[in-house]
What we know:
By secondary structure, the protein is an alpha+beta fold. It is built from eight helices and 15 strands. It has one domain (49-325): Sulfite Oxidase, Chain A, domain 2. The strands form three sheets. Strands 2, 6, 7, 10, 11, 12, 14 and 15 form an eight-stranded mixed beta sheet that branches. A five-stranded mixed beta sheet has the order 5-4-13-8-9.
Amino acid sequence: MPLIRIPKSWELPERMVTPELAFMNRRQFMKNLISAGLGMAAVSLTACNRSEAEVQTITSNLAEFPNLTQNPKFKDVGRAVTSEDFATRYNNFYEFGGTKSIWEAAQALPTENWSVEVTGLVNNPQTYDIDALMQKFPLEERVYRFRCVEAWAMVVPWVGFPMASLMKDVEPKDQAKFVRFTSFYDPKITKGPGFWALNYPWPYTEGLRIEEMANDLAFFAVGLYGKTLPKQNGAPLRAVIPWKYGFKGAKSIVKIEFLDQQPPTFWNVLAPNEYGFEANVNPEVPHPRWSQATERIVTNGSSSSWEKQPTLLYNGYEKYVGKLYS
């Protein structure tokens, strides 16, 4: 498929999605904010769905992000927002283990004095302190659908800023065709792989085409539900790409590189027949081991009781990203 070139006037917003992980524990990355570690249990799920009225009040009740605004273009996805209480108990973060109950192990993630290096084919390479990063780029709340390659889905209100804002600041060169995100990894801290994934291609990396990163929907998250991003959800900075499967959203990002060649990425290297580089949500393209035609909506109760719904092309975002793949 031909690539559609987007001019270097990196713009902003567009709409909806949901995450592959979830939430609870807090991090302090704005100076003078006290992180609150919130206790949770494994998958004994309680609250179900948050109403649209509740979603609309999230922004007005914020304490951690006093200047946060709610983007009206990304407020209604036609589906109830997943309960925060539930979402925080259903996480993937393979650096800390292979189950959905890694939230406790993930508290070992050291998030203080975090910096993010932006390098490669850019005119203005930067190393951002996470606090300065959040002050530099105006933060907004966006409600997005989230679709996991495992065929379950959520809806989450993220806090963050468009990837296009960072692109404008570092000015990618004309030769830059791809971007690679690298996640934090220290085998002394991220002990999960020590017993079950020792030979995986760590650190975790993911990538996008430059046009995909510049799309209005592409988002860097620093929080969710009006709170600082929990460690198990990829604190203090993660990628949110709502029209792609959740594994494309790199967590705990420490490095962003602009490249002229398509980079190898974690799951694509490990199992290229199961995890393509593009990884767009497409009901007509099955996973080698299961169909993607339907998705299970994560709610209260056991997974066997979760409602099934038809999977939407590009996770319902065809209007916004279809032109990238024409």
